[in-house]
């Protein structure tokens, strides 16, 4: 296919797409032919693009290629769509406490695109971008790099190797994983890597802050077509999943907090029943109820655990220890 490009920005955009969609690379002469411009023009465009994008040139064939991770496509978004992206990023920025310049850069680009159309919106987007810049660079300083490496593995379908810290053994273990996705966990102010462990052939979830020395291997993998991240976390309370059957959790909330509980959907499987004494019965099927304990404790005396029995016992034991602490 041959493009006719009269504007430099339009031509550079087409070069990005061509380079990213031809894995084996393409020579300047072929780019010149496809775009209908001189090789000198192509060379100037490539030099300019190289400032922002990592363009590779094979020493033997002189073919140019662009990593698909670096490709940026023009998106045509409505202001409502931009607002939805901004809200998602703002939640991420308020919950994740580490320096993340890539997220800041993405938001600033969104803001610049809106500057002449909706300046008030631009101001809030730029302020959200600053959230990712204000955190101490020395705290969790490797997280941004880990995200970059994991993303490269996902985009290029490459198995990754890394060291993970085990809280149980208090030691680092080498792991090879087929990365599926990165999942944010708002309650834990953290990010988790989801993928298939190559040693056990089982799905695993690892906290990014507990990983180090990530490298891409030469081994490739394919995510199963029937894998769904929504289905994977369907029964979880937060980030913990279970291969067994979900457990039924039943809580009784006081009339004092009943309306507050009703105003929020806490779990996709929840059922609410008002009882005669003005209290509220809350029911749900949860993969791992142990993950709910901090949330349950947060309601204090306004909630009573009815099921399962072991969760009720755990809460009672926690209250006994707390009573001893404050005695």
What this model shows, in words?
The chain has 327 residues and is α+β, with helices and mostly antiparallel strands. It has four domains: 8-70, Orthogonal Bundle (Arc Repressor Mutant, subunit A), CATH 1.10.10.10; 79-131, no CATH class; 143-226, Roll (SH3 type barrels); 247-326, 2-Layer Sandwich (Alpha-Beta Plaits). The chain is 38% helix and 23% strand. It contains eleven helices and eleven strands. The strands form three sheets. The protein has a five-stranded antiparallel sheet with strand order 6-5-4-3-7. A four-stranded antiparallel sheet has the order 9-10-8-11. Strand 5 (190-197) and strand 6 (203-207) form a beta hairpin. Helix 4 runs parallel beside helix 6 (119-131) and helix 5 (101-114) packs antiparallel against helix 6 (119-131). The longest helix is centred in the C-terminal third of the chain and has 18 residues, at 309-326. The chain is elongated, with a radius of gyration of 25 Å. Mean pLDDT is 87; it is low at 1-6.
What structural keywords apply?
single chain, 327 residues, alpha+beta, Arc Repressor Mutant, subunit A, SH3 type barrels, five-stranded antiparallel sheet, four-stranded antiparallel sheet, 11 helices, 11 strands, 23% strand, elongated
Task: Please give the structural blueprint.
Elements: H1 8-21, H2 28-35, H3 39-49, E1 55-57, E2 64-66, H4 79-95, H5 101-114, H6 119-131, H7 143-155, E3 158-166, E4 171-185, E5 190-197, E6 203-207, E7 211-220, H8 229-232, E8 247-253, H9 258-262, E9 271-274, E10 280-286, H10 293-298, E11 303-307, H11 309-326
Antiparallel strand pairs: 1-2, 3-4, 3-7, 4-5, 5-6, 8-10, 8-11, 9-10
Helix pairs in contact: 2-3, 4-5, 4-6, 5-6
């Amino acid at each position: 296919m041959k493009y006719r490009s009269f504007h430099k920005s339009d031509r550079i955009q087409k070069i990005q797409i061509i380079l990213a969609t031809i894995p084996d690379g393409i020579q300047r002469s072929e780019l010149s032919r496809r775009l209908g411009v001189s090789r000198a023009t192509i060379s100037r465009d490539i030099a300019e693009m190289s400032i922002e994008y990592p363009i590779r040139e094979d020493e033997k064939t002189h073919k140019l290629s662009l990593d698909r991770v670096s490709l940026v496509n023009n998106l045509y978004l409505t202001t409502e769509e931009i607002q939805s992206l901004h809200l998602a990023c703002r939640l991420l920025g308020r919950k994740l406490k580490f320096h993340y310049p890539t997220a800041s850069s993405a938001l600033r680009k969104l803001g610049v695109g809106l500057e002449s159309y909706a300046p008030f919106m631009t101001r809030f987007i730029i302020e959200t971008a600053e959230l990712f810049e204000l955190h101490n660079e020395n705290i969790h300083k490797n997280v941004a790099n880990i995200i970059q490496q994991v993303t490269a593995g996902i985009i290029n379908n490459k198995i990754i190797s890394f060291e993970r810290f085990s809280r149980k053994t208090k030691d680092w273990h080498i792991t090879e994983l087929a990365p599926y996705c990165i999942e944010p966990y708002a309650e834990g102010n953290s990010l988790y890597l989801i993928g298939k462990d190559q040693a056990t052939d089982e799905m695993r979830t690892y906290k990014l802050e507990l990983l180090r020395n990530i490298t891409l291997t030469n081994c490739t993998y394919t995510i199963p077509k029937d894998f769904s991240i929504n289905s994977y976390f369907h029964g979880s309370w937060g980030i913990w999943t279970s291969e067994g059957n979900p457990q039924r959790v039943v809580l009784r909330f006081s009339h004092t907090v009943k309306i507050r509980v009703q105003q929020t959907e806490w779990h996709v499987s929840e059922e609410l029943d008002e009882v005669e004494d003005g209290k509220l019965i809350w029911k749900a099927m949860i993969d791992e109820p142990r993950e709910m304990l901090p949330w349950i404790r947060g309601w204090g005396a306004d909630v009573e655990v009815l099921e399962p029995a072991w969760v009720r016992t755990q809460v009672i034991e926690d209250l006994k220890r707390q009573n001893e602490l404050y005695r």
